[in-house]
Amino acid sequence: TLTDTKRIIRDFFEKDYAYVAVDTETTGLHPLENFLIEIGAVKFNRYGIIAEPFDILIKPPVEIPMHITELTGIDDFMVSKCPAAAEAVNKFQEYIESPDTILIAHNAPFDIHFINAELERLGNMPLKNHVIDTLVMARRFHPDFRGAEDGPYRLQSLARRFNINAGHAHRANDDARVCMEIFKNLALERKNNTSIKDL
């Protein structure tokens, strides 16, 4: 909720909580029909990155569609000897460490629903972490971006606006890092800008 977002932004500058920015790449758009092929994540707090970035390629139970390979650069050969989703999501949960760790994602429902779908297939409980969506933050704090022609709230568009090196777009590890930087920029804007403190 917005109230939770306000509290978490305030706490980000006052407390040493752990945050994990996460991004996924998948075989399609629907978590009940498609599958994870990569999870990337970065753990950080107000001082900076506090653990080695997490990045794991995943072998899905289906062939990776050509348009996904064209988008991500990930093909069947790359994942042929990679772990299945069961191992990958377990390692991701180990990286998160705690249900108190706050997850940050851009268009968060997409990534979280895919991870939870894999957990459900394993008979495991879904993630219980609080989740902050940088897409929602950007739309609330910057309604002025709506008139832009570059898909103004896309991750790469926001990276350009905040002068963030986007790295390899549509690869989970780089996208997770960009998401972290966007969150930090938006949080700092809200902290310093009285015009958006009440948003």
How would you describe this protein?
With 199 residues, this protein is an alpha/beta fold. It is built from 8 helices and 6 strands. It has helices at 2-14, 66-72, 76-79, 85-96, 108-121, 134-141, 155-161, 172-192; strands at residues 19-26, 36-45, 48-49, 54-57, 102-105, 131-133. Strands 1, 2, 3, 4, 5 and 6 form a 6-stranded mixed beta sheet that branches. Strand 5 (102-105), helix 5 and strand 6 (131-133) form a beta-alpha-beta unit. Helix 6 (134-141) packs parallel to helix 8 and helix 7 packs across helix 8. It is globular, with a radius of gyration of 17 Å. It starts with a helix and ends in a 7-residue tail after the last helix. The model has no long low-confidence stretch (mean pLDDT 93).
- What is the number of beta strands? 6
Mean pLDDT: 93
Anisotropy-based shape: globular
State the helix count: 8
Question: What would you call the structural class?
Answer: alpha/beta
Q: Helix-strand pattern, N to C?
A: HEEEEHHHEHEHHH
Name the helicity range.
Answer: 40-55%
Q: Which range does the strand content fall in?
A: 15-25%
Uncertain ranges: none
Describe the main β-sheet briefly: 6 strands, mixed
Distance between the termini: 12 Å
Radius of gyration: 17 Å
